[in-house]
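Internal tracking record. Fields below are filled automatically when a chain is submitted to the structure queue. Please do not edit lines marked as system-generated. If the sequence contains nonstandard residues, flag them in the REMARKS field before resubmitting.
Queue: standard
Priority: normal
Entity type: single polypeptide chain
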Amino acid sequence: MATPAQWIEGARPRTLPTAVSPVLVGTGAAVGDGIVAPGLALLALVVAVALVIGVNFANDYSDGIRGTDDDRVGPLRLVGSKAAAATTVRTAALICFSIAGLAGLTLVSLSRQWWWIAVGAVCVAGAWFYTGGKRPYGYAGLGEAAVFVFFGPVAVLGTDVTQTGSVGPLAIVASVGVGMLTCAVLVANNLRDIAGDEVVAKRTLAVLLGATDTRRLYVALVTVPFLLSILGALRSWPLALGLLAAPLAVVQARRVLGGADGRALIRVLGQTGLLLLAWSVATAVGLSLAAVV
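SYSTEM-GENERATED OUTPUT FOLLOWS
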């Protein structure tokens, strides 16, 4: 039976910035439009955190029963390590998805953005079939595309529109940056796992591209958001605050281009999550100031 500490590790807390960041940016955009709705923002955060933890447990379950995690460098996998029964981990994932669903329904009912129910259902399906089902799209090199869409435009603009009823161009630009930095977290993870994934025929984008091009992709993903900060600043100068996170991007880009692998990439993954959070906090502040400067 897994200990509480093992369950926490299995939830992969290093990935939580991917849940918090889009909510911060979407809420910053709402504040910039003159809307302050802490209750709705909190509900959006519950949805995001529950979905991220749920997808982590779902991946643990699906990869575990396939044997993908039997020999892997990285955080503890509950099923692969035999620390917890597969059915128990699956139940944990379903509980998280249920929490996300209840919070999402409450958010939709309060905001009256009813069409987001369909979007939420697609998000849950996307979380499950990333590694679940007979033909998981995460095994076909489509993981980064899905992460970009769900954690970028969907999460950022969903947070914004449920508070304001509309979205503006600055929010759209910021959502692209969030999506790209979130992709960088996944790319760092998959770069670390290339050798093991090749053995079990898990054809991630990193496996398809190879290590060299994957490293170049990572650098592009952590660079473009800062170009977007400059682009946004042309319309509203506080968006330039996102550039404050640039030193973090430089450090991680150097590590990846310098050949970091194995356990060294675990640190890169965690630091990329912090980069995402730092850029998102600065950008959220910039968006919130956009209407008053």
